[in-house]
Design brief:
homodimer, 203 residues, alpha+beta, NADH Oxidase, 42% helix, globular
């Protein structure tokens, strides 16, 4: 599919058909995901691809918790889920190597990593997965793993080591007919106009 | 261009010809950039697009500093530079709204934002810019604004308010013939194999 068609068709889908996704599509999506940039070519972003329904059922909060929140468990529903994770230590270690002395320039870790680039790069990988899914004729939706308790759940469900930070569960599959009706912030909030978010030559 | 061609052709370019980029290309790239996802549809990512050579010359460290580091000033060289910025406060404020009570679930800001999603979303926007540049037949290279002193430089050079965090300067233009010879971590480090970064069903 043409690049701009992929970009403009992409939107969050959080309701999926009970229909499989081919392993070829999954591998192409993962291959796209690993082609993102990384600071110092650290490559600290890793992925867990989950197709086992028993494992998928452990990724979300318990059903009774979801019920009180009125949230549909699209992570359990989707045939494929990719967890994007990242290791801060891989970045910090990379920038202690000799050829990075100029980037560090005497700064300590807190100063050097004022912007925690592992999160930037994880976001780039997330974007590639979301776009690649559309190119495969599929849909995808993100459940951000923001809160600290989400980290513990990923460690329990997947054996994710505490050297890594879980960033986002990305559900991938075929969109259900009701996908457009699922509650989403994008349904009730307007997209900010370009003039408001783009500054020209200075702020 | 086909999506996977864009993804596979993209690589960091840090040496540019003295050749202009059309304003149509710039606007299409910015329009792609704003189509990234954002947590709670917060849309806290903003951009400064810099074409004025006088402003571009203020974005990098002084020439004498670059010279001691052996770094080429590709940011001044490129005809177009886009600074990706993000406001953490826009995200925090969005998640204080009523419909986000279920996501917050009593957590304080430190717990809720264990993963600082503004950085994730800024990375997604960066990825879209890098890909869109390739689709336009152009090349792009990132100068990450990691260190605290980079923030101060963006505030001075662009009038960026301290409500926003500068994430990355993205130089966009036509690649020079020597672009492949410019020092880059990707030239000396191997890409990690897929088996090493992808885990199946569990870590």
């Amino acid at each position: 599919m043409e690049f701009y068609d992929v970009v403009s068709r992409r939107h969050m889908v959080r309701s999926f058909l009970d229909a499989p996704v081919s392993s070829e599509s999954i591998e192409r999506i993962l291959n796209a995901a690993r082609r993102g940039p990384s600071a110092g070519y650290s490559q600290g972003v890793e992925f867990v691809v989950i197709t086992d329904p028993d494992v998928r059922s452990k990724l979300s909060p318990p059903p009774e918790v979801l019920a009180t929140k009125g949230v549909r468990n699209f992570i359990e529903e989707a045939p494929v889920v990719v967890l994007v994770c990242v290791s801060a230590e891989i970045y910090k270690s990379r920038y202690r190597e000799g050829d990075k002395a100029r980037a560090r320039d005497g700064a300590d870790d807190d100063d050097l990593w004022f912007v925690p680039y592992w999160h930037t790069d994880a976001g780039a990988a997330m974007m590639l997965i979301l776009l690649a899914a559309v190119d495969e004729g599929l849909s995808a939706g993100v459940a951000g793993v923001m809160r600290a308790d989400g980290q513990a759940r990923m460690q329990r469900a997947l054996g994710m080591p505490d050297t890594h930070i879980a960033i986002a569960l990305i559900a991938i599959g075929h969109a259900a007919a009701d996908a457009r009706n699922v509650r989403s912030s994008a349904n009730t909030r307007k997209r900010r106009p370009l003039d408001e978010i783009v500054h020209r030559n200075r702020w």
